[in-house]
Amino acid sequence: MKRALYITLNEVRLYLQDKGDLAFSLLLPIVTFALMYGAFGGQTLFTSTARIVDLDGGTQAARLVEQLDAVDGISIEMLTAADADSRLDRSDVQLVLIIPRGFTDTLMAGGDVTLLFKQRGNGGQEGQILASIVRSVAEEMNQEFQAVRQVQANLQGTGISDERIRLAVQNLLAKEREQPLVGVTEEVVGGSPDFITLYLPGIVTMYVLFALTMSAQVIVEERRRGTLERLLTTRLTAGELFFGKFMASTARGFVQTLILLGLAYAVFQFFTPLSFLQVLAITFLFAAAAAALGMIIASIARTQAAANWIGVVFTMFMVMLGGTFFEITKGSVLDTISKISINTYANEAMRTIVVDGGSLGDTGLSLVVMAGVIVVGLTVSRFLFRAVPGGK
Amino acid sequence: MAEEYLVVKDLHKSFKEQKAVDGVSFNIAKGEIFGLLGPNGAGKTTTIRMLSTVLEADSGEITIGGHSMRKESEAIRSLIGVCPQELALYEDLSALDNMVFFGRMAGLDGAQAKEQAMTNLKLMGLADRARGKVAKFSGGMKRRINLAIALMGNPRLLFLDEPTVGIDPQSRNHIYENIRGLQKNGMTILYTTHYMEEADRLCSRVAIMDGGQIISMDTPRKLKAQIGPPDQITLEDVFLKLTGRSLRD
After folding, report:
1. Which of B89, B97, B102 faces A234 most closely, judged by CB atoms?
2. Residue A192 confidence (pLDDT) above 60
């Protein structure tokens, strides 16, 4: 066991000596984090472009557009009817607001008007939010017209012109909008919950899988240097060699992920101190499982290229099946297939802690599966190293 | 009669249909330098790989220091040191770090490994470069480190597989002197080389291998006497007479 530890320390020393490798492996999590931050960090405001076809061209249509444009995060793109149809056909846009002909005249005459959403399917998530904003702006206009009509009716016969009443009511409502009696404000307490739910565990597990490719190369690397045979003529057993390399790969994968999670902890404040430690424990176990799988590849690969390719294919397969890039629907065929990817268990365990507020005790199955993969990975790799020609 | 430290009986090893070692038998006495000569592909390195526990023989018996290879390979690994034909070093580490690491692998504790590393580096004339990165060493220096590592853990039997390939005469001479010094201290050495004058100068006995078999084995003088007056004949003459002049792969 002592000699396995020396193998680990030697591997770490070699890793620290290779400045390029060191810089790359330590910078990579920082760069990944920067990209994550750029994509998701502190962005709580909905932004969208409202595509509008104005068939009316009147003052009230212009007011509607102006009020929509004043909403934070909404920008306006005016389209012709033909252009809107064409872009909807191409699925270039999901939803277009049509202001009908006679919109202004009907409103001014005290009649009812109807705005039209032309959309593909349900308009998409963004379209639905946009439609809701349009409805709220239309509702404001509606209330304003009703208020004007009510005041005009009450002041009928006083000699005050309808136009003066309209302006007075409009000014009053504008002031009200600036200083509402019932206001709403926001306090940003962390990143978007969607991001936590969907992406962070996936990104972390994908990252840990780099340890797999790294550990796939450790034996080939010794072979290339000529030190493998020399080591095997010492008192070091093949089991100690594998365990030492396994520990080094685990440590390397874990340290990289620790940087990534540490930055996420400090900047996004996703975690409580306890949940952070629990996620680290899961990550460590997963890094060890990935390293153990990498050792299987290491035991059969005879060249660096072979180790690399097998590692990459293995990693991609597990990332795709593990729900890193997309959510897997519970009970689907893919959900069943995903059970063969160790990523799935790591993702589930992390989501249990981060999203559901659970504890390590709630992740029992995932932890057992990962521990099992470690034992099986190390046993199989040791066996293959003996069985495959050119091994011990 | 000297104690036989290494005993090899009827050793066989094949790779698929290719017989690499075919019925090799020889003994090496304690404290002897024994030369294993042969053209490329003769089976020398395969023999050393089997003797150093890396490869398992298909059949035959190996006994080192009274321990049977089949039953006590771990005990054998504590008795042997191997200097492989190719450099087997961590080039990104210092000479001292390399030595200490392999010392630990040979069962030494930290202090012992460091002390022995410095002793062996001095022996190889590299004490002043102990902290230097191996990658920056010359070919001769790397060869000397390669040999020095084989001495870590005080092995009783040393396998030297062409330890002087590709180095200058000064480094080669330095290595010869060290090998002689090791022999004087009671170390048993199995030496392979393509340099016949090297074998003639160092080895008390040599075996010439070809086609996986030992085709002749004796003292250099007696081998030379087989084809002419020993003072006028070189070991290379004997080698070429026995193995022929055709080129090998």
Report:
1. B102
2. no
